[in-house]
Design goal:
mainly alpha, MetI-like fold, 15 helices, 70% helix, 0% strand
Amino acid sequence: MVENRPWLTVMAHAILIMGLLLIAFPVWMTFVASTHDAETMLRSPVPLLPGTKMLDNYYTVLFEGFGQASRMPQWRIMMNSLIMALGVCIGKIAISIIAAYAVTYFRFPFRMTFFWMIFVTLMLPVEVRIVPTYGVVAALGMLDSYSGLILPLIASATATFLFRQFFLSVPEELAEAARVDGAGPLRFFWNILLPMSRTSIAALFVIQFIYGWNQYLWPLLITTKEEFYTIVMTASRQANVVDGVPQWNLIMTAGMLAMLPPVLIVVFMQRQFVRGLVDADK
């Protein structure tokens, strides 16, 4: 029996509203700052309501560029981040699902040894192996290139582990029925396992896209040409100007633009994301 206690309902809603305000207030202030001019943002007190410079600021940032760190239009920088995020995301999913398929359904020497070698890499984040990775990328001539931005980040032990756990939950009778019908390994993978993995792929797509979009240290390290700058590293550079005052209104405008793609991905794929996590748990 569920007890009806109105005061608990009121308290729960109050806590939720307070949490929402704490999360939303910085986003609101970023939006407000993106609608004012630079002089207004340098005066005290900081405005709490939108101004009249919204269209001018967004046009300047998107199509003209600003600041000392990079004069490239923001749409071009956002395209670099989009290419990197999609490349990292698709690469991680493709390599992980193939590796998980091989470890789960093929019998070869040291199979589990290789799997645990992959799994142990979870303890080695990019920051730990960044110096040798940079050396390899530089030796291969991939500095200031999309391949240099994407390839070192496409391996994922987490995604491999999740796909393996999902494949282990697939009934063995399904594989036996496919063999009886004459399906080879590739056909079984392409026509049966891949469609069954759609929700898991969707969930990992959301996670890995945000991971690739928010990369800061690796693009900062291997890019020296403006045409390969990404949105996150550019925002940091624009805030750390030398012998000048940061254009906070334009920096906040760039920040709002940088938040849009991850937010849109989460909003439009939230149902698939939740279903993928639930199916992965099963």
